[in-house]
Design goal:
The structure is a single chain. This protein has about 375 residues and is of the alpha/beta class. It folds into two domains: about 15-250, Aspartate Aminotransferase, domain 2 (3-Layer(aba) Sandwich); about 250-375, Aspartate Aminotransferase, domain 1 (Alpha-Beta Complex). The protein is built from 14 helices and 14 strands. It has helices at about 15-25, 35-55, 70-80, 100-110, 125-130, 155-160, 185, 225, 235-250, 250-275, 305-310, 330-335, 340-345, 360-375, and strands at about 1-5, 65, 90-95, 115, 140, 165-170, 190-195, 205-210, 280, 290-295, 315, 325, 325-330, 350. The strands form four sheets. The chain has a seven-stranded mixed β-sheet with strand order 2-8-7-6-5-3-4, with helices on both faces. The longest helix is centred in the C-terminal third of the chain and has 22 residues, at about 250-275. The radius of gyration is 21 Å and the shape is globular. The chain starts with a strand and ends with a helix. It binds pyridoxal-5'-phosphate. Pyridoxal-5'-phosphate binds near residues 6, 70, 148, 196 and 205. The site of pyridoxal-5'-phosphate has 14 residues, from helix 3.
Length: about 375
């Protein structure tokens, strides 16, 4: 199987599994308990918190562990609106992940004021539109750091300078471990992270909450995570996240080079061998691992058929569109960039990892060309 689906979820590296196993097998204590096994788990969790916090330029007390990006995003939005009562209005971009769009829809349904921020044709936040918007210290802005479908990196620092008093949240699930993510440089108040985009385990992530914010738990129960996220922590998953984050940081330069050359080769091969493709990933302002393409003659192509044919040929790719009642919907990200519904449906998002080989890229380009040619017949 050539795995070119959502970021570096290729596999959990063996070294990460090794680091996690003792926390399943031997050190199974509950980190909130006072006996020795519990204390050992607590030490492991706090060491992971320290290391991951340092990687993003945060203080350990500013980081809570969650079950992943979805929970971190939901927690920020819902707690700011309800438990913490920090906001009267949410501004969010049109290209956010469903883990932002769906909770925003729910909050809108509950009569919260919410407004959509537009992106340009490259899928990058439209700052001109933003400049005209008045924000206050009770405005919560949620704009992702990098998009999961196109890889486009968003101007978060500029957003901060244009809205100095607002609360800013960024979903950094895609960018963390691929490009430097420093919450001081970005100037954000909240940031969401997930381990499974960086070869770590699924089901673990983190939420950065800037010091000084009176943030109250959205999930109620025990007093874990300084009363900000109830629920027994999983030392094994947290340690897996820690090792994955460490490796991503240490190897970032080498991984970036590998991923960039794979994407560049794929782009060249597709451009050279197929007469009409549109590149939906901006060349300079994007992650090193994502290439999104579509076809201007999309009316004659079936998005599902492209992905299914790739799968039959052993290539796992995706297009980021939601599947509703068994049928593929046009991607909301590509639609926001101005693509027609047909084109936004028949797009392909390739996401390479540090393990992607040149041979896999050549085979993918060749196979896609044949599939598209057959569909056009
Ligand atoms: N945000 C973005 C940008 C993502 O790409 C994803 C997952 O694909 C998520 C949030 C959800 O993260 P998780 O799967 O850890 O809940």
């Amino acid at each position: 199987m050539i795995y070119l689906d959502n970021s570096a979820t290729t596999h959990i590296d063996e070294s990460i599994i090794e680091a996690m196993l003792p926390w399943f097998r031997d050190n199974y204590g509950n980190a909130s308990s006072i006996y020795q096994l519990g204390r050992q788990a607590r030490v492991a969790i706090e060491s992971a918190r320290e290391e991951i916090a340092a990687l993003i330029g945060a203080h350990p007390a500013e980081l809570i562990f969650t079950s992943g990006g979805t929970e971190s995003n939901n927690t920020v939005l819902k707690s700011c609106c309800h438990e913490s009562n920090l906001t009267d209005e949410i501004l969010y971009s049109a290209i956010e992940h469903h883990a932002i769009l769906h909770p925003v829809a729910e909050l809108t349904h509950q009569n919260k004021r919410t407004s959509l921020l537009q992106v340009d044709a490259c899928g990058i936040l439209n700052l001109e539109q933003f400049e005209a918007i008045q924000t206050t210290n009770r405005t919560l802005i949620s704009v992702m750091h990098a998009n999961n479908e196109t890889g486009a990196i968003q101007p978060i620092e500029k957003l901060r300078s244009l809205a100095p008093d607002a609360l800013i949240h960024t979903d950094a699930v895609q960018s963390f471990g691929k490009i430097p993510v420093n919450i001081q440089t970005l100037g954000v108040d909240f940031a969401s992270f997930s381990a499974h985009k960086i070869h770590g385990p699924k089901g673990i992530g983190a939420l950065f909450i800037r010091k000084g914010i009176d943030f109250k738990s959205h999930q109620h129960g025990g007093g874990q995570e300084r009363n900000r996220r109830a629920g027994t922590e999983s030392p094994a998953l947290i340690v897996g996240f820690q090792v994955a984050a460490r490796q991503a940081a240490t190897e970032m330069t080498a991984r970036t080079e590998t991923m960039k050359s794979a994407i560049s080769l794929l782009r060249t091969l597709l451009n050279d061998t197929m007469d009409t493709i549109r590149l939906n990933t901006p060349l300079d302002q994007s992650l090193p691992n994502i290439l999104n393409i579509s076809f201007p003659d999309a009316e004659v192509l079936d998005g599902e058929a492209i992905l299914q044919s790739l799968d039959i040929h052993g290539i796992a790719a995706s297009n980021g569109s939601a599947c509703v009642s068994g049928s593929l919907q046009p991607s909301h990200v590509l639609s926001a960039m101005g693509l027609s519904p047909a084109e936004a449906k028949a797009a392909v998002r390739f996401s390479v990892s540090k393990d992607t080989t040149e041979e896999e890229i050549r085979q993918t380009a060749h196979t896609l060309r044949e599939i598209i040619a057959a569909l056009r017949e």
